[in-house]
Amino acid sequence: MAANNICILKITSTIFAILILSSNFMITPIKSLEFSREVSMEEMGLKTEKLSHLHFYFHDIVRGRYPTAFRVAESAITNSSATRFGFVEIIDDALTLGPNISSKIVGRAQGMYASADLNNLGLLMVLNYVFTEGKFNGSTLSILGRNAVYSDVREMPIVGGSGVFRFARGYARASSHENNMQKNGGAVVEYNVYVFHY
């Protein structure tokens, strides 16, 4: 009888301990399951916001020995459309310090552009500018916007970045430096980029 009481007491104690521990887990919030929380700028390592001006040339080469832009899709009307509506090109274009392709490379423009206007040549630009020089080496800027190709100056928004350009915002001003449509189907475009970053 005493042995039965001891066994019942052990089982009851074990069940009680399990219930106490289980209720602790149910009451205590689990931080890893939080969806969001506020963080301080110091916690993120953010200091004073800066405004930088970057200047470079974008070299788009569609045809020739060493093309940097490749058509990956087109619509049923691309070939009959005055604006080549619906074509999509994937690019890995050099960004250089000067207008000559042999000048110092400071990065690459990687992404895509597509003809997205039936009436005027307007490109949807979805690009990452990947920088390979100086204090911006390894950092990127992301561009998403409309490029009205035949306008003297075009503006496209900077929607973000990485590395030095985390939390980046600003705009890129593009102006055609040289049209190489006859030579290699491409162009040399001068860029002035104004970007806020930390």
Automatic annotation (TrEMBL):
The chain crosses the membrane at residues 7-27. It is found in: Secreted, Extracellular space, Apoplast. It comes from the Eukaryota. Keywords: Apoplast, Membrane, Secreted, Transmembrane, Transmembrane helix. InterPro entries: Allene_oxi_cyc_Dirigent, Dirigent. Pfam families: Dirigent. One of its GO terms (cellular component) is apoplast. GO terms for biological process: phenylpropanoid biosynthetic process. Homodimer. Dirigent proteins impart stereoselectivity on the phenoxy radical-coupling reaction, yielding optically active lignans from two molecules of coniferyl alcohol in the biosynthesis of lignans, flavonolignans, and alkaloids and thus plays a central role in plant secondary metabolism. Belongs to the plant dirigent protein family. This is Dirigent protein.
